[in-house]
Structures are given as C-alpha cells and as structure tokens.
Amino acid sequence: MSAPTTTTAATTAIVTGSSSGIGLDIARGFLAQGANVVLNGRDPERLAKAAALLGQPDRVAEVPGGTGTAATGEALVRAAVERFGRVDVLVNNAGTFAAKPFTDVTEEELDGFLTGNLKGTYLTTQAVVRQLRRQGDGGSVVNIGTVLVEHAIGGFPASAPLVTKGGVHALTVSLSAELAAEGIRVNLVAPGIIRTPLHAGSDVDAFGGLALLDRVGEVSEITDAVLYLAGAAFTTGHVLRVDGGYVTGRS
C-alpha cells in the first residue's frame, strides 16, 4: 500500500461510531492531516469524552444518535455544513458484532444487526450523497466491513452480523458503479482481527496465528487504510483487506 494521501485543511470528514476504538482513531487520523471531523455515537457523554480526548474543538463537531434512523444522517450533514461549510468524506464505521449460533439468533437480535450495520450505513450514505450532489465536486465514502464475509471461522458462529456486513460489501460495489459519473467514490476496508475494546477481557493475541503475519492488527492500521481510500482519487469499488493475510492463507 502506498502512503495515505494527505487531506487539505478544507476537507471535512464524517465518521460514524467514533466514540471509541477504530472510529475514534480514524477521527484522530483525519485531524492529524488537517481535516475537520464530525463525530458520532449513540451515547452523548461518551461522545463528549471522545471529543475532549481529541483536543481540537475548533475542528470537531459532535452529533449523538444511532445511525439506524434517517434523522441522524441528516443531522450529521447539517452539522458538517453549518460548522465547516461542506462534506468531503463519509466513513461508515458504526456497527455491531457478536457471535451466536444460527438457530439461537432471535428476530429482535437479527433486526438489531440489520439496523446497526446495513440500514445505518445505507441511510447515512443517502444523506451524505445528497449533500455531495449539491456541492457538485465529488466526494468519498469509505465503508467498514469484515474479512469474515469472505472467510468465516467454524468455531465463531456469527451469521447475523456477517449477513448484514455482507450487505455493506454489496452496497459498496453497487454504489461505486451508480455514483462514479458524479465523481463520488465508494470503497470498503475489511478488517481482520483487530485489537479493539470489543475484545476487552479476552486474549485477542491468541488469534494472531490465523494470519500469515502471525499477529492481530492494531486500530492505527485500519486508520491508515481508511485515509488511503479517502484520498485515492483513481480507486472506487475496492475492498481493501487489512487482515495480516488471513484470507490469503495460513502461516
């Protein structure tokens, strides 16, 4: 992978699910490149703490709320335009993930994954694309999927989150074709096993042997991939695996 393309001071990025973990680090990465960032998370208090941790209030806006409703996407766009004048990049990071055997998944749980992963990405992207069309000079959408869509683990049953993340992969390919003529690029980062708060309390390093590089990934490595795709002007419809070679083979 080549070095990430540096954003300009005028760039404004919306990052959903950015109260902690991967989303928070993605926001940090954009700020380090001089961009403005709109943070999002369901818990207003956690979101405020994340903004304080980033420490650049003049370039950070906060919009609490779940992305599973159209109103949150519209609020994110409104905050970006009112605070910073425009939107340039959307990172659809918000989502949910948990393992559970297929026949034990309840209808309520399935609805939660559909809303948190697929519907949230779909509705937020709609709101941002409408604004990008108003601006008329293109833009970039980077979705977050998972390599488990391509290569599942028998001992880690996760059909509900995977079928919804699979929908995000399909949406990426479809929108990349539909929006290309308008200069709107749509790509996806597919993480492998990453050291995040999701694995708190567990020995995440025990999974390192699943990858050719014999380790788990770090959140900063997902950030690097997102920043690259956000600025890669001749790349669209691409699924970028950041998995240490997990899908490719075994060490």
Record keyword descriptors for this entry:
single chain; 251 residues; alpha/beta; Rossmann fold; two-stranded parallel ribbon; 6 helices
Structure description:
This protein has 251 residues and is α/β, with parallel strands linked by helices. The chain has a single domain (12-242), classed as NAD(P)-binding Rossmann-like Domain (Rossmann fold, 3-Layer(aba) Sandwich). Helices cover 40% and strands 16% of the residues. The protein is built from six helices and nine strands; from the N terminus they run E-H-E-H-E-H-E-H-E-H-E-E-E-H-E. Helix 2 links the parallel strand 2 (36-41) and strand 3. Residues 1-9 have low confidence and may be disordered.
